[in-house]
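Objective 1.3, modelling of assemblies. Example input:
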Amino acid sequence: MMESLRPKGPSLAVEIAGIKMKNPVMPASGTFGYGEEYAGYLDLETLGAVVTKGLSLRPKAGNPTPRITETTSGMLNAIGLQNVGIDGFIEYKLPFLREINTPVIVNFFGNTLEEYGEVAQRLSDIPEVAGVELNISCPNVKQGGIVFGTDAACAHEVVAHVRKHLRKPLIVKLTPNVTDITVVARAVEEAGADAISCINTITGMAVDVRTRRPRLANRTGGLSGPAIRPIAVRMVHQVVQAVKVPVIGIGGIVEAADALEFLIVGATAVQVGTANFVNPTAMSTIIAGIEKFLVEEDIDDIRELIGSLEL
Amino acid sequence: MKDFKTVILSNQEISPGYYRMRILAPGFGALAKPGQFIMFRSQMSPLLRRPFGIFRIGFLPPDCEGQPPKEYLEILYKVVGRGTAIMQELHQGDRVEVLGPLGRGFDPGRPEGEKILVGGGIGLVPLYMLAEELMRSGSVRLLMGGRTRDDILAVTEFERLGVQTYVSTDDGSLGEEGFVTQALIRALEKSPDATVYACGPMPMIEAVYQICSSRGAPLQVSLEALMACGVGACLGCVVKGAGHSDETPRYLCTCKEGPVFRAEQLDWSRLGEENGYCEGCKS
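Predicted structure (tokens):
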């Protein structure tokens, strides 16, 4: 339908794990609320998908403040995954999302293997959920707090467990805080991931030199924004070569050219995060910029661009 | 709420370390309510926008005859960090991006009784438009405090509205020596049915809360917080709401559910623990 409305322009449509998207641009989880927060600024139906704030089984309070601080070309955050919990999501957030004609991807996490499975089970029953994105950058409280996503075996275990309970397309979001991201990427692919998104934030720290205290109450936080983009492009490039499933590129995308970098190294789609905070209309501008680029480069279909890196 | 690119009309130091920036903002007056704020960014800015309370909205005569008057908004800011240090270097004609008006502003409250505004330093900013609105229906008093005379801003502009003003400074360099809260205690003794509206540094806000709650005076406070988005998405600017606990989290977004809160909405026992401050929008 969309193609027939715009017969002359290039096709921006992509498909990830069976989820059909009008274009490859979607928000990164946690930077776009539940969609509603930005509905007054841009038409959510122009996005490839909406990715919602990370959800857990029960509501989560999050960290004490200060939770954010700006750093050079980026920001550190330690929000602590504050969220309404799955019941709150269904009751308060889903009714709005139900009305928009854009795939809804629900990001979620758990503190234990069992919690991950239970949320996956619950999300499977919601018809409006087009797919899920699994955040494995959380500590496993039952195993001494090891972060699931930093250990290939743990990552494999949690993805396999979720796969068993989930009847939806499964995107697994990888943390960059590892020695070799390709090892974890291969592990989650083998465990049943339909797609991989990367990267999550890079752990960082900032200090107020006057008070000599950390700038975040949590001491450390996740670095995002343009500062991390070259690292993200490198990691996406590595992951694309290591796995067969589609990859969604994330990390410091502010303008169309940034998104194009990820697509050229082989990402099938991209997520825009911190830029949404700076410019609520950032994704609209990026989508228009990608389309303009395709026209200029005489490319009819964005899929010709994906993975076209010259080496 | 709007997301618009515009230009600076003027940017002047009004007191040592304090600036007044006037920004072209067509149609803004019809949108903005007292106590709301904008997210501001210039081409020179670091990555994130900065929140600033809207001080006032006004009109300039048009450049040539027959055109409508030019509507502008004003912010007052204190140079406290990198973002505001860059802002003080901006000039007339520089391009800026404004998102707003944002947040929940002041509720005018019940019509009867005196209205007492309490401002600490740059915390006076969101009180001006409130004074404009409240002056239409009754008598308004402004109690303004600061460390020194340099921190006392724009008081004559309130006086021009007909607001009765009172000034105190910690060092006695202007007005009475001492804290503005002393004046609040006296004012509430004279007008026990008054409604209080306050904005300023957190110790002042907490002292105002103690005074008002012990006397049963309705209080609204405008808070500040570090925030990335201004629209309720980043959850960076939360404060603990009444009844908050780890088991039943009741966080309120300063940007969306505030920045103005009724005193009873907040968890005052924990408010002092919050130490997130934005760069000079209030204090």
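The mean pLDDT of chain A is 94.
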